[in-house]
Design a protein that fits this description.
This protein is an alpha+beta fold. Helices cover about 55% and strands about 10% of the residues. Helix 2 packs antiparallel against helix 3 and helix 3 runs antiparallel to helix 4. The mean pLDDT is about 90.
Amino acid sequence: MKQLTIENLPYQEPVPVLGEFLQLYYVLNPGAAFSLGSEVTWIFTIALAVVASLIVWKAFGLNSRLWAIVLGLLLGGVLGNLTDRLFREPGFPVGHVVDMISMPWMMPAVFNVADIFIVTGMISVALLVVSGVGFDGVREKDREASATDADAEGAADAAPATGAEER
């Protein structure tokens, strides 16, 4: 998508897709959201590399398809922007990120598909954490209920037999 943007869109000129609702607008972003922190781009590169490494490391212990999808989205977005930081001008590790999607009615920002994956992934992570879904796919309340049932069974097995049961 980014290469298609570079090859086919005019630089910093809006191309209406759905009027003012959705436009393609090719820019090079030296910073983070809203071009903030353009003087310390190398910090974003380090942060993206750390996040990507943590996601890959955590993926080896996953037993949840839902978590795998969410972390895959997040990893795809992180790697998309990290690649720009590493290989685009002005050079390693301060490259500018290619952005191309604009929705002027909603916010004055231009973003890319990787950004969409990152935001969607982070919202999904928050929802999974809040709803108590573990990396094994089991909800915390189900895990607690299962443990309570197991404790009750264990207590019943350990209870001394009464005379009535022996007859």
